[in-house]
Amino acid sequence: MQNQQISRSAYRIIMLVLLAVLFLAVNMFSNVMFRSARVDLTENSLYTLSEGTAEVVSQIEEPITLRFFYSEELATDYGRIRTYAGHVRDLLEEIRARSNGMVRLEVIEPEPFSEDEDLAMSLGLKGAPTQSGDIIYFGLVGTNSVDGLDSIPFFTDEREQYLEYDIARMIQNLSRPERPVLGIVTNLPLDTGAGGLMSAMRGESLPFMIYEELRNRFEIEFLEQQFQAVPKRVDVLMIAHPRPLDTPTLYAIDQFVMRGGHVLAFVDPHSEVSLTAGPNGDPVRGYTEQSDLGPLLESWGVNYDPTEIVGDRAIAQRVRTGLDARRQESDYVIWLAVPRENVDTNDIVTSDVARLNLGTAGHFTPVEGATTVFSPLVYSSEDAQLYDVEYVKGGPKPDDLLRNFDPAGKRFTIAARLSGPVDSAFEGPVDEAPVAPEGAQSPRKSQDKAPSYMAQSEKDANIIVFADSDIFDDRFWVRTDSYLGERVAQPIADNAVFVMSAIDNLMGSNELISLRARDKSDRPFAVVEELRRSAERRFLAEQEALEKKIDEAERNLTELQVGGLDEDVADGGPSEQEASAIKRFRTELLDSRKKLRDVQRDLRRDVEQLGAQLRFINIVLVPIILALVALAAAFLRYRRRKARVEKGA
Questions:
Q1: Strands, E, within 178-266: which ranges?
Q2: Closest listed residue to residue 139, CA positions, set 112, 104, 166, 175
């Protein structure tokens, strides 16, 4: 009996030891074999490698070497960097595994005062100093088989949402012998910033961040705003709020489209980015407040009225007013924060756009009977109306725009894709050369001669039009900081996503489009936002009525007090009737002011009540429900066990 008990005890010990060994073996095996394996349960698949990256990797023809510099030992005390580094390394290893040997990955830990640290510095990586004085390197360098080199100097938290895109873009840049050419026709200071050329020469101005993205991705060729032909090397032509173009220039663009050229055009009824003051307080010299493309838009199948601006109460941006100490922000209906619900998620250009920040945008309508297909990409809500551009120039206050708001009950298209056959906007060739305005320098002649006239497009056109130029303005969509001597962009909207995706699509390169802002985690509180807007509309109506009542009471009170002043001095005081009226008006004035304070306080009441309800549900109700479910399950289990015991007895 004793031997049997010893055998059972030994058996149990042996089983525990074997289980422990098996547990360790499984963990070691999984760490080696399934290092990159993961299950992504997030709603938007934030941590799943995109198909676009797989396409980029599959198109590599010559080997690419990626050197991942990471000071792992020094970063031990920095949990955020350590976690992020694990994510970066997992992504790099997954890319290497799917490249069929075309991507080589080297992980380098540059120790202080080592040759690896010297190599990191020579390749342009930036080190982050620690409190102890050591330098942490956390960057990536890519090289191809020739002399191509690209790098990410330091992986910052602000760019974590764009991690996969940044790496895929690096690989694609290294895998292409020549970058595609983007032609730009614009009167915006894209490459110099708000201060213009003179400020840039003095080092007082910086390029727009969208232009920085374009320069990293494409070879840029600026075209004079008067030319006879679009250069043949241009793959896509971007027209961004130009000054009025003359007939030969319009003809050159028209014939570029006839020959299969793709166009991305931004026009604007009131360009606020053009009016942005530079260091001297004035807009850039030669600015253009309003832009149009004349007969081209109509020939492409779209109507555009440069005198109309879209206002939208449902998707208005919140702006600081400072007019009321109790309410510092208000809806500015002519500045739009376009949410994902107001873009075409089925179009590859806008499929990953979560938000666009725009200012004083226009709108398009399709031409009846046009040969092209008009497909809206970005549009307003139905709670929108049109404003005359001259009224907007007068600078109406946000509350005035809200009080006089009269929604049209329909959507207005702000951006659209035009596809299909196109007829020329001109009945024949335009032979005359561009003529400079009086007093201006003669335009630089393009080396490309005007092509022979074509009345119809060779193939279906692919054109994207956008009725706003403020999409380029850094103020609307990005916050920039300086980190280790580099400008770091922290996007708050997807303006660059739209521009880059549109050009990629028109270039015929769709691989990177799915990577743009694909892992954006910012989700607006739609119910809270609607409650706030509803409460504010009630507040404005009641505020206006009470303010009129207060003004009337103050006026009557002043008239009584001033009008009866002389009689008061002569008779020794106001009459009983006047004193009663003064008392009544004072009481009415105090009562109205109290009601106004109540209205202002109630502005956030619905939102606060919803917040309290959510806190109750999360903190109290859900635990109670879980506890009740657990008790019910335990009770049922007890009843079943008791029933089995009674049945066995």
A1: 181-186, 219-222, 236-240, 262-266
A2: 166
Beta strands in 177-328 (DSSP E): 181-186, 219-222, 236-240, 262-266, 302-304, 308-312, 316-320
Q: φ and ψ at 31, to 5 degrees?
A: -65, -35
507: exposed, middle or buried (Cβ count in 10 Å: 0-12, 13-18, 19+): middle
Beta-bridge mates of residue 137: 127
Let me know: does 335 contact 401? Beta carbons within 8 Å.
Answer: no
- Residue 96 pLDDT greater than 50, yes or no: yes
10 Å CB burial of residue 159 (0-12, 13-18, 19+) is middle
Q: Which residues contact 24 (CB under 8 A, 6 or more apart)?
A: none
Task: Say how many C-beta atoms besides its own lie within 10 A of residue 481's C-beta.
Answer: 11
SS3 letters across 29-70: HHHHHCCCCCCCCCCCCCCCCCHHHHHHHHCCCCCEEEEEEE
Q: What is the mean pLDDT of residues 225-247?
A: 93
Confidence class for position 303, pLDDT limits 50, 70, 90: very high
Name the residue among 105, 112, 193, 189 with its Cα closest to residue 142. Answer: 105
How far is Cα 193 from Cα 196, in angstroms, rounded to an integer? 6
Question: Residue range 573-594: average pLDDT?
Answer: 67
Strand 486-491 vs strand 478-483: parallel, antiparallel, or unpaired?
Answer: antiparallel
Among residues 476, 416, 410, 493, the alpha carbon closest in space to that of 271 is found at 476
- Does the pTM surpass 0.85? The reply is no
Pick from 148, 128, 126, 136: nearest CA to 66:
148
Cα separations in angstroms, 320 against 268, 332, 397: 24, 9, 11
- CA–chain centroid gap for 427, Å, is 41
Please identify which residue in the block is written with the tokens 């100097």.
Answer: 153
Assess contact for 108 and 68: CB atoms under 8 A: yes
Residue-by-residue DSSP string for 497-538 = HHHHHHHHHHTT--TTGGGTTTT------HHHHHHHHHHHHH
At 17-65, the pLDDT tens digits run 888 888 788 777 766 665 545 565 555 555 667 777 888 888 888 899 9
DSSP assignment, residue 99?
A: T
Of residues 104, 90, 21, the one with CA closest to residue 62: 104
**CA–CA gap between residue 163 and residue 625 (Å, rounded):** 40
- Those residues whose C-beta lies under 8 Å from the C-beta of residue 300, and which sit 6 or more positions away, are 257, 370, 372, 418, 422, 461, 463, 465
**Of 142, 506, 541, nearest to 347 (Cα)?**
506
Check if the beta carbon of residue 443 is closer than 8 Å to that of residue 226.
yes
pLDDT in tens, 252-292: 999 999 999 999 999 999 999 888 755 555 666 668 899 99
